Amino acid sequence: MGEFFGIKAPEKKVDVDVATHVIVQDDGPKRSMLYIETADRPGLLLEVIKIITDVNVDVESAEIDTEGLVAKDKFHVSYRGAKLNSSLSQVCWLIVCA
């Protein structure tokens, strides 16, 4: 679609290693903040949301940002109306990093 608006996709794919970081922090008494920083790619946001909802974590809101080739996304999440416990935090980290 970018080509339609005059922005042409690069001819060559850029091979850059970007370390993935997943941080889960308390974000109030009833929710957590899930921060994901990883290499940006087409479909990343959809993939992350699918993973989060597959483990029954509710996304209340999100702040989506891309800086160059790096996606920096914050998700305000809860599980059954409560913040994530340490087990769910580890599950989210393992699944997103897989």
From TrEMBL:
InterPro entries: ACR1-12, ACT-like_dom_sf, ACT_dom
Gene Ontology terms: cellular component: chloroplast stroma; chloroplast thylakoid membrane
Record domain ACT: where: 33-98
Keyword list, A-Z: Repeat
PROSITE patterns in the cross-refs: ACT
UniProt GO MF annotations: amino acid binding
Range of residues in the leader sequence: none
Protein function: Binds amino acids.
Protein known as: ACT domain-containing protein ACR
Organism from which the protein derives: Aegilops tauschii subsp. strangulata
